[in-house]
Amino acid sequence: MPEGPEIWRAADKISEAIAGKEIEEVFFAFEELKPFEPKLQGLRVDSITPRGKAIVTSFENNLNLYSHNQLYGKWMIGKDGSEPDTNRSLRVAIHTADSSAFLYSASEIEMIEDEEVEAHPYIKKLGPDVVHPETTYDEVLQRYQSSSFKNRKLSTLLLDQGFLSGLGNYLRSEILFCSRVDPQFRARDCSEDQIEALAKHSLELSRRSYKTGGLTTPDDLVKALKEEGASRKQYRHYAYGRAGKPCYKCGKEIQVVETGGRKIYYCETEQKDLN
Known about the structure:
The chain is an alpha+beta fold and about 280 residues long. A hairpin with a 2-residue loop joins β2 (about 45-50) and β3. α6 packs across α7. The chain has helices at about 5-20, 35-40, 115, 135-145, 155, 170-180, 190-210, 220-225, 230-235, 270; strands at about 25-30, 45-50, 55-60, 65-70, 75-80, 90-95, 100-105, 110-115, 255-260, 260-265. It is built from 10 helices and 10 strands. The strands form 3 sheets. A 4-stranded antiparallel β-sheet has the order 1-6-7-5. It has 2 domains: about 5-125, N-terminal domain of MutM-like DNA repair proteins; about 135-270, Helicase, Ruva Protein, domain 3 (Orthogonal Bundle). The protein is globular, with a radius of gyration of 20 Å.
């Protein structure tokens, strides 16, 4: 499932393609949305806003398209009405005079009015967005220090969009690794330094991934690994997806464990032996 950085980058591409432009034609695959096709024709797209792992496309007539990509959904951009070459199922198409935005394979799509956006069942439960430039370190730190969350295992908590929105499976492993926290810990098990590190890296790694198109490793490490001939898959992350490979900090093998049906990657030396 796409995480916050990927959703923000998708929103940027959609915005570049259709924001501020007049709609020439709209297509909805779902019958319950068909009545909105003529209502949107001729209107302008006001904004494209990431909300956790969802996107809200706002139109000038008080209507908003809510879409959640879930596991398989994907937005693509086309020029001059041409549809991308894909085997995915088309769910939504928004055409302007020179570019189009296509949503494929998503199943959670709704039209809602302005006053319904913040009350949407998904949106109203979201925690602070780790990619949003206005989310502060203090806000995130308070979440980690809150009595509402301190008793939950961090490996589960970091996937909860009500805790911090935009985090997901790869960011979870990377945040715990960089914060030197045992994946089995709860917030209450962490030292003050670890809690502060968790807050810092929750923002830092998410925003780095957004800016770089998916990298959580810093520029100097990426540069060094590239010079050694490493592939993007090898230098993209510190721990995630690197089971059996040497840790970039201590050289010991990265380990993997499955929790809740999803894998989490960690280093025994960096995250367990020190506790």
